[in-house]
Amino acid sequence: MDALLTDALKRGNPVVFFDIAIGGSPVGRMKMELFKRECPKTVENFRSNS
Fold first, then answer.
1. Torsion of CA 1, 38, 45, 23, to 10 degrees
2. How far is CA 35 from CA 4, 16, 40, 43, in A?
3. How many CB atoms lie within 10 A of CB 41?
4. pTM of structure
5. Is Isomerase among this UniProt entry's keywords (predicted)?
6. Which of 47, 49, 19 is CA-nearest to residue 33?
7. Contacts for 34 with CB less than 8 Å, ≥ 6 apart
8. pLDDT tens across 1-50, in order?
9. Across the strands, what pairs with 15?
10. Measured in whole angstroms, how far is the alpha carbon of residue 20 from the centre of its chain?
11. Of 12, 21, 24, 43, which has the highest C-beta tally within 10 A?
12. How far apart are the C-alpha atoms of 47 and 22, rounded to whole Å?
């Protein structure tokens, strides 16, 4: 587990992952921490739609 994920989970924030492909070939994964305390409704909507 990397530092971003570990720290986010300690703070109680969800982390979402976006796998990126160009022309059908995978090129990487983007990890985003969602700040639940600052905007809980937006975070839950974003997390549930990811």
1. -50
2. 13, 11, 8, 7
3. 8
4. 0.67
5. yes
6. 47
7. 13, 14, 15, 16, 43, 46, 47
8. 688 889 998 998 988 889 999 999 999 999 989 999 999 999 888 888 86
9. 33
10. 13
11. 43
12. 24
